[in-house]
Amino acid sequence: MTLDLIDYLSLLAIILIGIPHGALDLNLAIAGSAAKPKKQRVIFIVYVMVAVISFIAWYLAPSLSLLAFLLLSTVHFGRANPLVLDYKNKNLAELVSAVTFQGGLTTIFLPWLYWNEIKVIFNLLGATSNLFEPIGIFGIIVWFLSAAFTLVSQRNIGLILTTFCLLGLVYFKESFTPLSLFAAFFCVLHSLPHYLKAFKEIERPLLRPPLGFFINTVMAWLLVVIISLFFFQNQSVSSATLSAIFSVLFALTIPHMILVDGLLPRKLENWRIT
Fold first, then answer.
1. How far is CA 139 from CA 109, 211, 273, in A?
2. From CA 207, how far away is CA 212, in angstroms rounded?
3. Secondary structure of residue 91 in the 3-state scheme
4. Which of 25, 195, 258, 274 is least buried, going by the fewest C-beta atoms within 10 A?
């Protein structure tokens, strides 16, 4: 598979905008637990250890890890509520449907729409795309049911506009690539709102991040470069670039999700969805 210029620009956006959105995780952990310096070091060490274990899992079992990545990302993206749906005072079925619909925009609907291209990417990542076909059929059925239920139970202008955009995307899908659409969602609808929410939580101006933000961001970028060089040994440039970026995304998503979706909601009201 040869990546187009728009694909490389999309991957660059993921690196520059998307990956650093978790660089404030330690600051959020401190805000959520009023951690003392010793406890801060423990949090950092545990975070790094979980990321390392996740990367090893990706390398040893890419198919299983990719499936886990898609499932966890569905929950993570859905909880972030990019379309600003009403999550308050909803019953469990309405909440699960709304989370599945929003989170599945890029993890279920996008692979279904661009399956011929996506299965090539999956294979380049070391996964066995044939294993995902029956899972994908089940997933898209669940997603369409969730979308229909959410449309009925929610009255939201963003949801209506999104529905029209999805219908248009089906017709004009040749004008885009799956990587460009994923990058647009990940950077604009997920990462940017997270930045705003995180900076507000730690009470820092958006244009004056703490030093740790820059350190963590540079470390993540260096990690992408190092892993790219590792994959370059026996893969093409396109394959090595994809493998490096998505393995780093998976490795950082696991501890990021544990913190943002598991621990913070227990301590900080702004991170709860109900």
1. 9, 41, 23
2. 14
3. coil
4. 274
Stated length of the chain: 274
Cα–Cα dist 116/107, whole Å: 15
Q: Taking the chain, what is the end-to-end CA distance rounded to the nearest angstrom?
A: 43
Half-sphere exposure of 96 (CA within 13 A, CB side): 5
Give the HSE-up count for residue 194: Cα atoms under 13 Å, Cβ half-sphere.
26
Q: Residue 78 CA to chain centroid, in angstroms?
A: 10
What are the mean pLDDT values of the chain's consecutive 10-residue runs (274 residues total)? Answer: 87 95 91 66 89 95 96 96 87 94 96 95 90 94 95 84 89 94 96 95 90 94 91 82 93 94 88 84
**Cβ count near 197 (within 10 Å):** 15
- Give the other-Cβ count within 10 Å of 14's Cβ: 21
Q: How far apart are CA 267 and CA 274, in angstroms?
A: 14
| pLDDT digits 0-9 by tens, 170-205 | 999 999 999 999 999 999 999 999 999 999 999 899
Contact 179, 3 (CB under 8 A): yes
Q: Which amino acid is at 14?
A: I
